[in-house]
Amino acid sequence: MANKLVIKVTAGADAPERCSQAFTVAGVAVASGVEVSLWLTGESAWFALPGRAAEFELPHAAPMDELLASVLEGGRVTLCTQCAARRDISERDVIEGVRIAGAQVFVSEIMPEGVRALVY
Fold first, then answer.
1. Backbone dihedral region for residue 48 (phi beyond 0: left; psi -120 to 50: alpha; all else: beta)
2. Which of 23, 54, 109, 119 could tie 65 with a disulfide, CB 3.0–4.6 Å?
C-alpha cells in the first residue's frame, strides 16, 4: 500500500470537473492520513493565489478553498516553476505554505518505492 500520494493537476476553471476531482482526491487522502503532495500546473496554477480557490464553483462539488486549505494543513502544495513564470506569479504572490519548484523536485517525489502519482 502506498504511503504517499503525489497528484499533479493540470486543469483549472477550463476543465472544472477534472480539476475538482484532483482536489477532492487530495483532500480525501489527507483526511485519511495519507501523505499528500499536490502539484499545481497549467491552469491550476492560478489556485496558488489568494482568493482564487474561493472563486471556483462546480455544482455538487466540495468547496475548492476548503479542499486546498486541508491539503495545505496536512500535506504539501507546490506550484510548478515554469507555470508560475508563464503567469508572472512569484513566491511573494502565493498563498502562505505554497512552494514553487520544478520538474527535478517532482521526479524526486514520485520515484521512491511506495509513492503513487496521479495526473489530472
1. alpha
2. 54
Listed in order, strand segments (DSSP E) in the chain are 4-9, 35-40, 76-80, 98-101, 115-119
The structural domain count of the chain equals 1
pTM: 0.94
CATH of the domain at 77: 3.40.1260.10
Q: 52 lies in which domain range?
A: 4-119
Using CA atoms of 79, 82, 86, 87 in order, give the dihedral in degrees to the nearest 10.
10
pLDDT tens per residue across span 17-74: 999 999 999 999 999 999 999 999 999 999 999 999 999 999 999 999 999 999 999 9
Count CA atoms within 13 Å of residue 98 on its CB side.
Answer: 27
